[in-house]
Amino acid sequence: MSNTFHFAVPAGSLEVAKTFYCDLLGCETGNSEEGRWVDIDFWGNELTLHESEEQLPKVRHDVDMGAVAVPHFGVHLTEEDFQALKGRIEASDKFDYLDKPYRRFIGTEFEQETFFIEDTNGNVLEIKTMMHPEVLFKKA
To answer: What fold does the segment set 6-135 form as a domain?
Structure first.
């Protein structure tokens, strides 16, 4: 785990945030300090949710195929895990996409399907699956 990424965000109510991260996304909790913060196993990375009243401000930046919310963070999933998560979101009556799933870089080695979703405190997550994950850090 020497290359595990760590990221901490304001999460609003931790109990409410855990419904999003654990029940919807399927993540598990780790270490915590009751009423202050909780670590989430975010697909092998350490996401720390901090009890808070504030939300991060966000704007939209134009990129390849649209305007994306910034800041955002996310994860690359296998096709199977990506489709399973989409199914849970689409079956949910509590959560919906911020930006619905779409494909970009179609026909290239960087082709991917991606969507954006907000957690219960307005933090934006980009979830994607790469058609050719072996080229992730290859220069275009």
So the answer is: 2,3-Dihydroxybiphenyl 1,2-Dioxygenase; domain 1 (3.10.180)
Tokens for 117, please give them: 């979703």
């996409």: which residue's tokens?
97
Domain residue ranges of the chain, discontinuous segments joined by +: 6-135
Q: Percentage helix, strand, coil, to 5, in the chain?
A: 20, 45, 35
Q: Which of 114, 86, 115 is nearest to 98 (CA)?
A: 115
The pLDDT of residue 3 is 79
Q: pLDDT (tens digit, 9 = 90+) per residue, 102-117?
A: 998 899 998 999 999 9
| Residue pair 85/77 in contact by the 8 Å Cβ criterion | yes
**Cα–Cα distance measured from residue 82 to residue 87, given in angstroms and rounded to the nearest whole number:** 9
